[in-house]
Amino acid sequence: MFRFHGQVVLVLAACCLLVAAEKKALPAQAADAIDERIEPEKLRADFRIARQALEEGHSGIYRYTSKEELDRLFDQAEKSLTKPMSMLEFYRVLAPVVAAIKCGHTEASLPRGIMKAYAGKNGVLPLQVRVLEGKVYVWRDFSGAAPSLTGMEIRSLNGVSASKIVEKMLAAASGDGDIQTSRMWRISGWAFSSQLLALAGLSAPYDVALWDSKEKREIKAHLEGADLARLQETARAQFPQDQRPKTAGQFKFLDEGMIAVMKIHGFGGFVDAERKQTLREFYQESFEAMNRKGTKTLVLDLRNNGGGEDELGKLLLSYLLDEPFKYYDDLVINAREFTFKKYTKLPTVAEDAVERLTNGTYRLLKHPNLGLQQPSKPTFAGKVLILINGGCFSTTAEFLSQVHCHKRATFIGEESGGGYYGNTSGPVPALTLPNTKLIVYVPLVTYHMAVSGYQAAAHGVVPDHPIRYTIEEVLEGTDKELALALELARQ
Description:
The chain is α+β, with helices and mostly antiparallel strands. The chain has 14 helices and 22 strands.
């Protein structure tokens, strides 16, 4: 969810991203605390703290949703807080209205210890799912059901249609603008099972209606809840290929060096197990190798790259352009100090790091991605094919919009997950609401990319070659994006 930034922007201790109140584990009585009823006046007090912090601190709060519409949604939600509620019931009120800001770095969240304890007490659905074009499919079946439910479409759970469950989850999912691909990624996997409890209010046992497309018939399954931690441990052991790679990047040549395939898993970290080669060194070595071999086509795989250090996005772009370029147009923060500091830790904004604007906000002055940027050598002048999906977010989305604006690549896959013209992120303090203990993440810096001409302002990069998957193709491990990229590269 989060991204990293250069230390020159704000005065932070040793790291560039501030998450002040991590989702810390809570005491053993957490499972009981989640059912405790909280009085309406305390619920409203927490709701107002969250709203005030977002309105005061979130410098891009009205980027995708108007003030009038957000005010209406906040007012409507607060009016519903008329009776005692549990923490979960309050979460179901707060999460959708926070998500209505349409910012992928902004969300309301339950404390990790609470949800872990509650899931342990009640049991989660023992299925990992993939949400494809709004439909829910069993991706990994850990239920022990016979026959296996893998590959089947879930039609309903405990009498609630899957379409209504997905609609509710998407409405509460954090995401930029109107991009649904990113939201479908975010509610897939174990998130779906957890949100059945937290958001949809469905608990074990689970009566599941499924559609078996092979047999052309409906299947009924009665599934007991399972411990989420044990399910995740089993999944790691049985399907190691599903786990996120530990290296930041991979590189290989095909066709005697005429095609290079570069995979960037995240903009940060190291590309070797010994943690000796940084991504910066990896870039330099890779582009030098392509230059020596006379590589004609670079296939750049950024699928599921959720971002990282924004300088590394700019640096990668610098190897693809042969003239000076602008990366960021502007970085804006609402204030140097905020009144919600009693609920979180906030960064210190140095006076000489900002310039006050006429509307009372501040422009950040010292980010290394501001101003005219220079190309890096050796420049790659060949064909570039970029593989994208809804998991491309934050720093990755910034890089994609720049490459797209410069008409420097062909895009294959599905719409990328981050907004084309920028995001709101930077330091992302996490507020702990005093009565309910819910966490609200409030990003402080709005990034304006130096791009133009894109009509779909509330969207990411839309691919030149859209790719869609069936659940059968997902289960087979088919890589349609890479196959098409190699086909295009060899033409």
